[in-house]
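task queued by scheduler; priority normal; single chain, no ligands, no partner chains; default sampling; output format set to structure tokens
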Amino acid sequence: MAPVERSATSGFPSPAEDYEEERIDLNRELIPSPLSTFFMRARGNAMGQDGILDGDLLVVDRGVNARAGCVVVAVFEGRFIVRRLCQIPGSPTGLRLEASDGHTPPVPLEAGQDGGAELWGVVIHAVHHLAHPGQPHQRRRTLRRRADETREP
């Protein structure tokens, strides 16, 4: 009779061995319609209360139908602005664009007329850095210095 080869493990198996997850594909997650999707960089803090900060990367889909409550990109006075599309109180069909900062005045949505804004696309994602993207080494030094200052002698 031929010898039978057997193997044995020593130690515990990896808990991740039974857990296989597909890699996250940012193109699939963030860009559902590649032909109508654009990237923009947010400037200013008018939408800060909605979590859109200066420098954030905005994913804008021009193929999405905007409705009240959506954060949109519009063209106003020859430039792009980011605002929330809101129903005008007391008007069943009137819409305007509102900032979340509490002091930027609303903009009327009047496509094709002087003085109003024209919708350009709907913001479907806003991506912002949690660390300071341009200064990673300076940030680490600052944190290390603060940690050193809190140590007892």
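post-processing summary
- The helical segments are 26-30, 136-150.
- The chain has a mean pLDDT of 82.
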